[in-house]
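ingest -> validate -> predict -> emit
validate: passed (alphabet ok, no gaps, 370 aa)
predict: started
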Amino acid sequence: MSLEVSLKDLRLFYGELEDGQESQQKFQHFVKQEKWGLEHFDAWLNESIKNKWHKEFQDLIIALGPKLGFEIEFGCYKAVPGRIPFDGIWKTADGKHIIIEVKMGTWVSIDVSQLGEYLDRIAKERGISKIQVYGLYVVGDEGEIKSLADQVRGSKYAHDVRIISYEDLLVLAKMRKELSLADHQVARLLLPIDAVNVGELVQLINSLLKARESELSIARETPTLRPLELKEEELPILTREEMAKLPDGETILCPSKPDGVRFLLKYNAWGFVRLTREPRYLALYVSAPVASINYLAEVDRIVDPKSLDSPVKKPEDYEGYEEGKKLILFKLGSLRRLAEPIQRGSIIPYGPRYCRSKDLAKARTTDDLK
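emit:
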C-alpha cells in the first residue's frame, strides 16, 4: 500500500528523535492524531522495522493505544535521571496501567526483572495497587517470541507480564473495530488470565461470542436500507456555485469505464478501492468517450465488500475486486451529477487520487487538480 506520507519523508521534517526535544514532540503529536487509520500504522511500523528506526517504532506502538480503547502516555527513548524509563503506558477506563516495553527484536538479551521493577516503582510512585499494574512486551520479530516467553515464565513476574507481536496487536485493533469489542474485552485479552481458574478464560471467550452473536442479530433484524437502483435522469444536478458552498473536505477521485456508472447507480456506492485514509467526498471520472468528472457524492461510511453492511452480494464477481479493497457507501441523496463536468486535460486519472473539494469546484480540467 502506498502512502502520501512516509516516515522517510517525515524524518526530513522532524530530524532525529531525541528525548525532550522538539523532534519528539512533533512526531508524537503527528502519530496520535485520530485521522490515521490502522493501514497507516501498519505501513509505518513495517517501514520502521525495515529501516531499524527503533524510536519511531516505539512511539508508533504507544500511539496505537487509542485504537484499542486505551488512554496513552508516551515514555522516553533512553534512561532519564529522576524518571522511570518506561517506553509508554496504556491506561484502561477502570484505572489499570499497562506498562509497555517495545522491542524491535527479541534476539537481544532482555532482563525481564527490569520491566517487573518498573511495575513496582510505578505502583508506588502513583499510589495505585500493584494488582492494577501490568507489563506488556510488544516485539517486532514474532519468530523470536519463544525465547522471551521462556524468560518471562522463569521470572517472579510471570503472572504480571505478557508478550505480543506488533502484527498481532494490529490484528486485535482490527478485531475491536470490526466486532465492536468493548474496551474491557480488549483489555482482558491483553492482561494476564488466571492459569489455574480456567473458567476465567471460558468466560472471556463466551463474552466475545455473545458480542459477535448480538452484532449479527442486530444486522439481521435491521438491514441497511439502500435504494434499489438510482436512475441517471433522476440524479440531482450540482452547479459550480453549489459545489463551492459545500464544506471543504478531502475528496477521492476514482476512475471508471462508462459501463461502471451502472454500479454507481445500482448500489449508491463505489468499489473497489484501496484507501490510505477516509475521504469526505468521492468524485467519479468516466473514461472515454465521456472523458470527464461527472459525479460527486458525500461518503457515508467505508465497509468491507463482504461485510453485512455491503449491498453487493457477490463482490468477487466484479472486475477489480481484491481482498483488502473497500466499498465506499454514499449518504442517501448525496450522489449528484455535475452541471459542468470537469473535462480531461493532459492528466488522466488512471487510479484513485486525492484532492480537496474546494479545488474540485474551481477546476475546469483534470490538470487543475495537480
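Residues 7-191 form a domain with the Restriction Endonuclease fold (CATH 3.40.91.30).
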